[in-house]
UniProtKB/TrEMBL annotation:
Reaction it catalyzes: 4-CDP-2-C-methyl-D-erythritol + ATP = 4-CDP-2-C-methyl-D-erythritol 2-phosphate + ADP + H(+)
Annotated residues for binding of ATP: 107-117
Natural source organism: Sediminihabitans luteus
EC number: 2.7.1.148
Classification lineage: Bacteria, Bacillati, Actinomycetota, Actinomycetes, Micrococcales
Gene: ispE
Name of the protein this chain belongs to: 4-diphosphocytidyl-2-C-methyl-D-erythritol kinase
Length: 312
Protein backbone atom coordinates (compact mmCIF):
# COMPACT_ATOMS: atom_id res chain seq x y z
CA UNK A 1 0.00 0.00 0.00
CA UNK A 2 1.44 3.40 -0.91
CA UNK A 3 1.83 6.07 1.78
CA UNK A 4 -0.50 9.11 1.56
CA UNK A 5 1.55 12.21 0.84
CA UNK A 6 -0.45 15.43 1.45
CA UNK A 7 -1.01 17.24 -1.84
CA UNK A 8 -0.69 21.03 -1.48
CA UNK A 9 -3.67 23.10 -2.56
CA UNK A 10 -3.21 25.07 -5.80
CA UNK A 11 -3.66 28.41 -4.03
CA UNK A 12 -4.91 30.23 -0.93
CA UNK A 13 -5.76 33.91 -0.51
CA UNK A 14 -5.65 35.51 2.96
CA UNK A 15 -6.57 39.04 4.05
CA UNK A 16 -4.90 40.72 7.04
CA UNK A 17 -5.45 44.20 8.48
CA UNK A 18 -3.24 47.16 9.30
CA UNK A 19 -3.47 48.56 12.82
CA UNK A 20 -3.56 51.76 14.80
CA UNK A 21 -2.40 52.02 18.43
CA UNK A 22 -5.13 53.77 20.44
CA UNK A 23 -2.71 53.84 23.35
CA UNK A 24 1.01 53.20 23.32
CA UNK A 25 2.64 53.37 26.75
CA UNK A 26 6.40 52.77 26.57
CA UNK A 27 8.79 51.83 29.38
CA UNK A 28 12.58 51.97 29.71
CA UNK A 29 14.46 49.52 27.43
CA UNK A 30 15.05 45.99 28.72
CA UNK A 31 18.41 44.21 28.57
CA UNK A 32 17.61 42.85 25.09
CA UNK A 33 17.03 46.42 23.82
CA UNK A 34 13.26 45.98 23.46
CA UNK A 35 10.90 48.35 25.25
CA UNK A 36 8.16 47.01 27.50
CA UNK A 37 4.80 48.22 26.21
CA UNK A 38 1.21 48.51 27.31
CA UNK A 39 -0.65 49.17 24.12
CA UNK A 40 -4.17 48.96 22.75
CA UNK A 41 -4.20 47.85 19.13
CA UNK A 42 -7.15 48.23 16.81
CA UNK A 43 -7.26 46.49 13.42
CA UNK A 44 -8.62 48.76 10.68
CA UNK A 45 -10.11 48.27 7.22
CA UNK A 46 -6.90 49.13 5.34
CA UNK A 47 -5.87 45.59 4.45
CA UNK A 48 -3.22 43.46 2.78
CA UNK A 49 -4.25 40.64 0.44
CA UNK A 50 -1.74 37.82 0.14
CA UNK A 51 -2.03 34.86 -2.20
CA UNK A 52 0.14 31.74 -2.04
CA UNK A 53 0.26 29.62 -5.21
CA UNK A 54 1.90 26.22 -5.42
CA UNK A 55 4.70 26.16 -8.02
CA UNK A 56 6.57 23.18 -9.56
CA UNK A 57 8.76 21.10 -7.26
CA UNK A 58 12.19 22.60 -6.70
CA UNK A 59 11.21 26.12 -7.75
CA UNK A 60 11.55 27.56 -4.22
CA UNK A 61 9.94 30.80 -3.03
CA UNK A 62 9.27 33.84 -5.21
CA UNK A 63 7.49 37.04 -4.24
CA UNK A 64 5.75 39.88 -6.08
CA UNK A 65 4.16 43.00 -4.62
CA UNK A 66 1.57 45.35 -6.14
CA UNK A 67 -0.75 48.06 -4.82
CA UNK A 68 -0.07 51.01 -2.54
CA UNK A 69 3.65 52.03 -2.73
CA UNK A 70 4.60 48.49 -3.78
CA UNK A 71 7.97 49.71 -5.09
CA UNK A 72 9.14 50.36 -1.49
CA UNK A 73 8.71 46.72 -0.41
CA UNK A 74 11.55 44.14 -0.62
CA UNK A 75 10.77 41.10 -2.79
CA UNK A 76 13.53 38.84 -1.43
CA UNK A 77 14.10 36.71 1.67
CA UNK A 78 14.17 39.85 3.86
CA UNK A 79 10.42 40.26 3.31
CA UNK A 80 8.61 39.12 6.49
CA UNK A 81 6.06 37.16 4.43
CA UNK A 82 8.87 35.16 2.80
CA UNK A 83 10.33 34.38 6.24
CA UNK A 84 6.88 33.41 7.51
CA UNK A 85 6.46 30.88 4.68
CA UNK A 86 9.92 29.45 5.45
CA UNK A 87 9.06 29.11 9.15
CA UNK A 88 5.79 27.24 8.48
CA UNK A 89 7.47 25.00 5.85
CA UNK A 90 10.25 24.09 8.30
CA UNK A 91 7.71 23.43 11.04
CA UNK A 92 5.65 21.12 8.77
CA UNK A 93 8.65 19.52 7.06
CA UNK A 94 7.61 20.49 3.52
CA UNK A 95 9.57 22.11 0.69
CA UNK A 96 8.34 25.69 0.18
CA UNK A 97 7.69 25.75 -3.57
CA UNK A 98 5.34 28.72 -3.72
CA UNK A 99 4.78 32.11 -5.29
CA UNK A 100 3.72 34.85 -2.87
CA UNK A 101 1.62 37.68 -4.34
CA UNK A 102 0.92 40.63 -2.07
CA UNK A 103 -1.54 43.41 -2.87
CA UNK A 104 -0.83 46.25 -0.47
CA UNK A 105 -3.53 48.44 1.03
CA UNK A 106 -1.69 49.46 4.23
CA UNK A 107 0.72 52.41 3.89
CA UNK A 108 4.36 51.21 3.71
CA UNK A 109 6.67 52.11 6.61
CA UNK A 110 3.96 54.16 8.21
CA UNK A 111 3.58 52.72 11.70
CA UNK A 112 0.49 50.74 10.69
CA UNK A 113 2.15 47.31 10.62
CA UNK A 114 1.59 46.52 6.93
CA UNK A 115 4.66 44.26 6.82
CA UNK A 116 3.49 42.52 9.98
CA UNK A 117 0.05 42.01 8.39
CA UNK A 118 1.80 40.33 5.42
CA UNK A 119 3.68 38.05 7.81
CA UNK A 120 0.47 37.13 9.67
CA UNK A 121 -1.32 36.49 6.36
CA UNK A 122 1.58 34.33 5.12
CA UNK A 123 1.53 32.19 8.28
CA UNK A 124 -2.20 31.49 7.92
CA UNK A 125 -1.93 30.95 4.14
CA UNK A 126 1.03 28.55 4.37
CA UNK A 127 -0.63 26.53 7.13
CA UNK A 128 -3.78 26.27 5.00
CA UNK A 129 -1.96 25.56 1.71
CA UNK A 130 -0.13 22.59 3.24
CA UNK A 131 -3.06 21.53 5.44
CA UNK A 132 -0.81 21.90 8.47
CA UNK A 133 -3.56 22.35 11.05
CA UNK A 134 -1.13 24.20 13.33
CA UNK A 135 -2.87 25.22 16.56
CA UNK A 136 -3.52 28.92 17.02
CA UNK A 137 -0.96 29.27 19.84
CA UNK A 138 1.73 27.68 17.68
CA UNK A 139 1.03 30.17 14.87
CA UNK A 140 1.13 32.90 17.52
CA UNK A 141 4.60 31.71 18.62
CA UNK A 142 5.90 31.79 15.04
CA UNK A 143 4.33 35.26 14.65
CA UNK A 144 6.14 36.57 17.74
CA UNK A 145 9.44 35.27 16.29
CA UNK A 146 8.85 37.34 13.15
CA UNK A 147 8.11 40.66 14.88
CA UNK A 148 6.40 42.29 17.84
CA UNK A 149 3.30 43.38 15.85
CA UNK A 150 2.79 40.13 13.92
CA UNK A 151 0.71 38.30 16.59
CA UNK A 152 -1.82 41.14 16.52
CA UNK A 153 -2.10 40.75 12.73
CA UNK A 154 -3.33 37.20 13.43
CA UNK A 155 -5.77 38.21 16.16
CA UNK A 156 -7.23 41.47 14.79
CA UNK A 157 -10.23 43.32 16.32
CA UNK A 158 -9.11 45.32 19.40
CA UNK A 159 -6.61 43.96 21.91
CA UNK A 160 -4.33 44.97 24.75
CA UNK A 161 -0.68 44.17 24.03
CA UNK A 162 1.98 43.79 26.72
CA UNK A 163 5.57 42.51 26.73
CA UNK A 164 7.08 43.67 23.43
CA UNK A 165 3.48 44.19 22.29
CA UNK A 166 3.20 40.49 21.43
CA UNK A 167 1.27 39.22 24.48
CA UNK A 168 -2.36 39.87 23.63
CA UNK A 169 -5.68 39.99 25.44
CA UNK A 170 -8.80 40.74 23.37
CA UNK A 171 -10.57 43.95 24.44
CA UNK A 172 -14.34 44.48 24.55
CA UNK A 173 -15.61 47.23 22.28
CA UNK A 174 -19.00 48.48 21.10
CA UNK A 175 -19.66 49.91 17.65
CA UNK A 176 -17.31 51.04 14.91
CA UNK A 177 -14.72 53.80 15.02
CA UNK A 178 -14.21 55.98 11.94
CA UNK A 179 -10.63 56.90 11.13
CA UNK A 180 -8.80 59.27 8.82
CA UNK A 181 -5.11 58.59 8.09
CA UNK A 182 -2.53 61.01 6.70
CA UNK A 183 0.51 59.24 5.29
CA UNK A 184 3.95 60.47 4.26
CA UNK A 185 6.18 59.06 1.56
CA UNK A 186 9.28 59.52 3.71
CA UNK A 187 9.00 56.79 6.35
CA UNK A 188 10.33 56.76 9.90
CA UNK A 189 12.49 53.88 11.12
CA UNK A 190 10.94 52.20 14.17
CA UNK A 191 14.32 51.55 15.90
CA UNK A 192 15.30 55.22 15.30
CA UNK A 193 12.06 56.43 16.91
CA UNK A 194 12.61 54.17 19.94
CA UNK A 195 16.21 55.49 20.23
CA UNK A 196 14.96 59.10 20.06
CA UNK A 197 12.40 58.21 22.74
CA UNK A 198 15.20 56.93 25.03
CA UNK A 199 17.26 60.09 24.42
CA UNK A 200 14.59 62.79 24.65
CA UNK A 201 11.78 61.32 26.74
CA UNK A 202 12.73 58.12 28.57
CA UNK A 203 10.15 55.64 29.80
CA UNK A 204 9.52 54.53 33.40
CA UNK A 205 10.96 51.27 34.76
CA UNK A 206 7.45 50.08 35.63
CA UNK A 207 4.42 50.67 33.40
CA UNK A 208 1.06 51.18 35.07
CA UNK A 209 -1.55 49.10 33.17
CA UNK A 210 -4.24 51.26 34.85
CA UNK A 211 -3.16 54.12 32.59
CA UNK A 212 -5.28 52.65 29.80
CA UNK A 213 -8.34 51.98 32.00
CA UNK A 214 -10.28 55.12 30.89
CA UNK A 215 -9.68 54.22 27.24
CA UNK A 216 -10.83 50.63 27.83
CA UNK A 217 -13.98 51.88 29.55
CA UNK A 218 -14.71 54.28 26.67
CA UNK A 219 -14.27 51.42 24.15
CA UNK A 220 -16.67 49.21 26.13
CA UNK A 221 -19.29 51.98 26.13
CA UNK A 222 -18.77 52.71 22.43
CA UNK A 223 -18.16 56.35 23.39
CA UNK A 224 -16.08 57.70 20.47
CA UNK A 225 -15.75 61.16 22.06
CA UNK A 226 -14.17 59.67 25.21
CA UNK A 227 -11.99 57.36 23.08
CA UNK A 228 -10.74 60.40 21.17
CA UNK A 229 -9.94 62.27 24.39
CA UNK A 230 -8.02 59.27 25.78
CA UNK A 231 -5.85 58.51 22.70
CA UNK A 232 -2.20 58.39 23.80
CA UNK A 233 1.13 57.71 22.15
CA UNK A 234 4.29 57.98 24.26
CA UNK A 235 6.42 57.74 21.08
CA UNK A 236 4.79 60.83 19.58
CA UNK A 237 7.33 63.37 20.92
CA UNK A 238 10.16 61.23 19.51
CA UNK A 239 8.43 60.91 16.12
CA UNK A 240 7.84 64.69 16.07
CA UNK A 241 11.51 65.32 16.92
CA UNK A 242 12.50 63.30 13.83
CA UNK A 243 9.68 64.60 11.60
CA UNK A 244 8.55 68.04 12.92
CA UNK A 245 6.16 68.50 9.98
CA UNK A 246 3.80 65.97 11.59
CA UNK A 247 2.79 68.57 14.22
CA UNK A 248 0.96 70.55 11.55
CA UNK A 249 -0.82 67.42 10.30
CA UNK A 250 -2.12 66.86 13.85
CA UNK A 251 -3.14 70.53 14.19
CA UNK A 252 -5.08 70.48 10.91
CA UNK A 253 -7.00 67.36 12.03
CA UNK A 254 -7.83 69.05 15.33
CA UNK A 255 -8.94 72.17 13.44
CA UNK A 256 -11.26 69.95 11.37
CA UNK A 257 -12.95 68.80 14.59
CA UNK A 258 -11.33 65.38 14.97
CA UNK A 259 -12.16 63.67 18.28
CA UNK A 260 -8.44 63.06 18.76
CA UNK A 261 -5.37 62.94 16.52
CA UNK A 262 -2.09 61.14 17.19
CA UNK A 263 0.92 59.71 15.43
CA UNK A 264 0.16 56.04 14.66
CA UNK A 265 2.69 53.72 16.32
CA UNK A 266 6.19 54.96 15.51
CA UNK A 267 4.80 57.07 12.63
CA UNK A 268 4.90 58.94 10.37
CA UNK A 269 1.22 58.17 9.68
CA UNK A 270 -1.13 60.44 11.63
CA UNK A 271 -4.43 58.87 12.76
CA UNK A 272 -7.45 61.08 13.43
CA UNK A 273 -10.63 59.78 15.01
CA UNK A 274 -13.78 61.09 13.33
CA UNK A 275 -17.46 61.23 14.30
CA UNK A 276 -18.61 59.48 11.10
CA UNK A 277 -17.38 58.33 7.71
CA UNK A 278 -18.38 61.71 6.26
CA UNK A 279 -16.41 63.49 8.98
CA UNK A 280 -13.37 61.27 8.24
CA UNK A 281 -13.63 62.34 4.58
CA UNK A 282 -13.82 66.00 5.69
CA UNK A 283 -10.63 65.59 7.77
CA UNK A 284 -8.89 64.07 4.72
CA UNK A 285 -10.07 67.03 2.62
CA UNK A 286 -8.66 69.46 5.22
CA UNK A 287 -5.28 67.67 5.15
CA UNK A 288 -5.21 67.73 1.36
CA UNK A 289 -6.17 71.42 1.19
CA UNK A 290 -3.46 72.32 3.73
CA UNK A 291 -0.84 70.23 1.90
CA UNK A 292 0.19 68.42 5.10
CA UNK A 293 -0.05 64.83 3.83
CA UNK A 294 1.31 62.94 0.82
CA UNK A 295 -1.74 60.68 0.79
CA UNK A 296 -4.95 60.30 2.81
CA UNK A 297 -7.20 57.32 3.62
CA UNK A 298 -10.35 56.62 5.57
CA UNK A 299 -11.04 53.36 7.38
CA UNK A 300 -13.18 51.80 10.08
CA UNK A 301 -12.21 49.58 12.97
CA UNK A 302 -12.28 47.07 14.45
CA UNK A 303 -11.97 44.37 11.75
CA UNK A 304 -10.94 40.71 11.85
CA UNK A 305 -7.36 39.41 11.91
CA UNK A 306 -5.72 37.33 9.16
CA UNK A 307 -8.30 35.02 7.57
CA UNK A 308 -8.65 32.87 4.49
CA UNK A 309 -10.83 34.57 1.86
CA UNK A 310 -10.50 31.99 -0.95
CA UNK A 311 -8.87 28.63 -1.29
CA UNK A 312 -8.91 26.29 -4.28
O1 LIG B 1 9.81 43.33 16.86
P1 LIG B 1 10.15 44.14 15.65
O2 LIG B 1 11.21 43.51 14.80
O3 LIG B 1 8.95 44.51 14.85
O4 LIG B 1 10.72 45.51 16.18
C1 LIG B 1 11.40 46.41 15.34
C2 LIG B 1 12.28 47.30 16.18
O5 LIG B 1 11.46 48.18 16.98
C3 LIG B 1 13.16 46.58 17.18
O6 LIG B 1 14.38 46.22 16.60
C4 LIG B 1 13.35 47.62 18.27
O7 LIG B 1 14.34 48.56 17.89
C5 LIG B 1 12.04 48.36 18.26
N1 LIG B 1 11.09 47.87 19.29
C6 LIG B 1 11.34 48.14 20.63
N2 LIG B 1 10.46 47.71 21.58
C7 LIG B 1 9.34 47.04 21.23
C8 LIG B 1 9.06 46.75 19.88
C9 LIG B 1 9.96 47.19 18.92
O8 LIG B 1 12.35 48.76 20.96
N3 LIG B 1 8.49 46.63 22.18
Amino acid sequence: MSRLVPVPRPSVRVRAPGKVNLALCVGAPREDGYHPLVTIFQAVSLVEDLELTTTPEGSGISLAVSGLHAEAVPTDATNLAWRAVELVAARLGVEPDVRIDIVKGVPVGGGMAGGSADAAAALVAADHLWDGGLPRDELHGLAAELGSDVPFGLLGHTAVGTGRGHLLTPAMTRGDLHWAFATRTRGLSTPAVFRAFDEHVGGPDELAPDDVAPLMAALRRGDAVAVGAALRNDLQAASLALAPELAETIEVAEGAGSLGAIVSGSGPTVAALARSRQHALAICAAWTAAGVADDVHTATGPVAGARVVTAV
